Amino acid sequence: MARVCLPSMLRTYVDGDKELDVDGATLQQVLDALRERSPGLERRLRDERGALRRYVNFYIDGDECRLLDGQDTAVGAGTEVMIIPSVAGG
């Protein structure tokens, strides 16, 4: 079971939870399980084709998933998945 850490801007979609324990052997399976649990969160993380949104970063134990195997990156018990949307400002 992976531990998914969510920033405050996404917590409204998961009843305010900062962290969630989610089953899945890959990042894709973890995101699929999140979609089942909180459908409103899905469109903020992946596009209509299921690809990761460009301006959302997914870190697997501190490493950006796009530098690993993307959604096919393996996760296991105790893996930390951090989801960090880019925030624009000036």
Q: Which structural class matches the secondary elements?
A: alpha+beta
Q: How many DSSP E strands?
A: 5
Task: Write the H/E string, N to C.
Answer: EHEHHEEE
Spatial order of the strands forming the largest sheet = 2-1-5-3-4
Give the overall shape, derived from the CA principal axes.
globular
Enumerate the spans where pLDDT stays under 50 for 5 or more consecutive residues. none
Rounded mean pLDDT score:
95
Helix content: 10-25%
Radius of gyration: 12 Å
Largest sheet: 5 strands, mixed
Tell me the β content. Answer: 15-25%
Q: If helices are DSSP runs of H or I spanning 4 or more residues, what is the number of helices? A: 3
Structure characterization notes:
Strands 2-1-5-3-4 form a five-stranded mixed sheet, with helices on one face. The N and C termini lie far apart (38 Å). The relative contact order is 0.25. It is an alpha+beta fold and 90 residues long. It has helices at residues 8-11, 27-37, 39-45, and strands spanning 2-5, 19-22, 56-60, 63-64, 80-85.
